[in-house]
Structures are given as C-alpha cells and as structure tokens.
Design brief:
By secondary structure, the protein is an alpha/beta fold. It is built from 4 helices and 3 strands, in the order αβαβαβα. It has a 3-stranded parallel β-sheet. Strand 1, helix 2 and strand 2 form a beta-alpha-beta unit. It is globular and about 30 Å long. The N and C termini lie far apart (about 25 Å).
C-alpha cells in the first residue's frame, strides 16, 4: 500500500502522478478530464487514467492501481 497524505498544497497529487507514471500503473479518480489536465500541467503525459465507474466494471486489472482520494471512492461505492 502506498499512501500520500498531508495538508493542501504540498504536492500529494503530483507525487501520486509521478509514481503512477514510473510504474506504468493505472490511476483511478473521480474526474478523468481534470486529472489528465493536472498531470499535463505537471508535464506528465501518457497516463492510464480511469474513472471510479470504469474501474468498478472491470473484472481484472493487470497493472498496479492507485486510487486518487480514497474517501471519494468509498463514498462513490456507497451511492451505487
């Protein structure tokens, strides 16, 4: 398990995106367009980004998976 935590504005998302890129992993997030824009602003491209909904419909994922904002993901799961 890899957890990035701390206050606002300390680079948590950037750290996560850099790790996802380095490991050729999947990042699961609420808004894929926003996440792709954030990554692009950091100069990070070519990421495999999927939404919570897309992730929940998969049977199996071969790559490592990182969930951006686990609390939102849990809340998403409780709505469905």
């Amino acid at each position: 398990m890899f957890i990035v935590s701390g206050g606002r504005g300390i680079g948590k998302t950037r750290t996560l995106l850099e790790r996802v890129k380095a490991e050729n992993a999947v990042i699961v997030c609420e808004d894929t367009i926003e996440m792709r824009e954030r990554a692009y602003n950091y100069g990070i491209t070519g990421l495999n980004i999927m939404s919570y909904k897309e992730f929940d419909t998969l049977e199996k994922v071969e790559e490592p998976v990182y969930i951006h904002d686990i609390n939102k993901y849990i809340s998403y799961g409780n709505r469905n």
